[in-house]
Amino acid sequence: MTDTANLSHARNPAAAFGGGAIIGALGGLIGLGGAEFRLPILIGLFNFAALEAVILNKAMSLVVVATALPFRAGTVPFSAIADNWPIVLNLLAGSLIGAWFGAGWATKLRSETLYKVIAIMLVAIAIVLVIGHDATAGQPLLTGVSQLVAGVVAGFIIGIVASLLGVAGGELLIPTLVLLFGADIKLAGSLSLAVSLPTMLVGFTRYSRDQSFSVIGRNKAFLLIMAAGSIVGTFVGGLLLGIVPNAVLLPALAIILLISAVKVWRH
User: Fold this and answer.
1) Which of 65, 163, 194, 263 is the most exposed place for a label (fewest CB within 10 A)?
2) Alpha-carbon torsion (69, 146, 249, 156), positive or negative
3) Contact of 27 with 234, CB cutoff 8 Å
4) In sequence order, what are the residues at sequence separation of 6 or more whose Cβ sits closer than 8 angstroms to the Cβ of residue 242?
5) pLDDT digits (tens, 9 = 90+) for 29-53
């Protein structure tokens, strides 16, 4: 009885709404799903079992990614995303396949080794992003066929990572867009969301075959409250995007990469 009371208290609506809002604001501002930050909250604060937390986390990331894109449109209009449709398709060509295979491989790979490799990769990207951005600002790293091939390969890897870790993949997509394609950091955030949404849907569909998805039905009220908070958060984050300068967003993304690396390493 005490455990049930503690559980109910831990999952109170205010905490669910507030947690969703804070992470949603981060997603709206940077262009991320916020999964790495939400998962520890679902497990540590709301007492969900690991697998339940992963599944709920995927659902909430979809909400953040889907709503952040239109809320950012005041600063990064849909026309700007449409003008860069070849980049989106280039990355999607790899990420959709990667997401499908990644979801299938999730239970078969030696996860400890994978997580450590990804953590090291995140740190390396953070360093390259900060040091190399000024030297390559606005200039793509590659052009022509080389860029096309690199985009498909990068998308494939990101799709696998997104499915295996249950994230939107923005932590890897945004640096790829900035460095490989020379995109502005704010535009990169919106392009990242445009790539993340279909990529996550593919992985989500593959994972939905598992009977553990019943956790969503059992926690509909909690999910709806956190989703409402997330939508409010992404709206606020979208407004902040027009205020916060690029000089702040780039270091912020680098810090998020480093925090994510620590979390993945300890996974």
Assistant:
1) 263
2) positive
3) yes
4) 74, 75
5) 988 888 878 887 888 889 888 778 8
